[in-house]
Structures are given as C-alpha cells and as structure tokens.
Amino acid sequence: MGFIVVRKAAGMFPGKKLGRETEPDHRRIRHSLRIRRASLGPADRVLFVDDWIETGNQALAVRDLVSAAGAELAGCAVVVDQMQSNSKETLGRFHALVTSEELPDA
Fold first, then answer.
1. What does the pLDDT average to over 17-31?
2. What is the mean pLDDT of the chain?
3. Given this model, what pLDDT does residue 13 score?
4. Domains of the chain with CATH codes
C-alpha cells in the first residue's frame, strides 16, 4: 500500500514523469496533470481520491496516467460528487460521501 501524488503542471516534481491534459473543466480550463513515472508499475492498483468531482475530467486523465504506467485504476472516491455525466461508468468503482445536492445552500 502506498500513496502517490498527482500534480498540476506548475508544481515542482523531480524525476521522469508521465503527463496528461484534461478536457476542459466547468470553467473551460484544461489542466496538465503529472505523476512520477517510477511511482507505479504493472502490479499496482490505484484508488483515485479527491475532494470534489464536477466534470470527471481530472479523474479520467488520472485513469489514463495510471494505465500508461501499466497499473490499474480500481476506482474513485470523493468527498462531494457533482458529476452530471456518465464518466462514473469508466472510473471503476465510485464512492462519494455526499452529493452536491445534499449540501446546504450557501
């Protein structure tokens, strides 16, 4: 069991990297995501964990990074689920603590 970091392009990150660009998010911004190449291998299974998922585009880019490293995406866990797309089906197991509709109005 271990922990790997997915970083956006601006962050410092030593070593060889794998990178993917996301589809545009809800603000129409594309993000460049990276992982250290040595972090994953064929025997690894990955659970992607995030605080909030809206479009699923970052999770899908992480899925592609994990696959490019030869590992397997086992699923996705988030605190808040706001996805309206069918991306959940391609992320494997999916679990959220709450949906955005369950949150109180600000």
1. 91
2. 90
3. 79
4. 17-102 (3.40.50.2020)
H or E stretch covering 7: strand 7-8
Q: What is d(CA 55, CA 9) in angstroms, rounded to the nearest whole number? A: 19
| Spatial contact of 20 and 49, defined as CB atoms under 8 Å apart | no
Q: Does residue 92 sit in helix, strand or coil?
A: coil
Residue 67 has pLDDT above 90, yes or no: yes
Give me the DSSP letters along 25-91.
-TTS---EEEEEGGG--TT-EEEEEEEEESSSHHHHHHHHHHHHTT-EEEEEEEEEE---SSGGGGG
Amino acid at 91: L
Q: Which of 40, 43, 3 is nearest to 18 (CA)?
A: 40
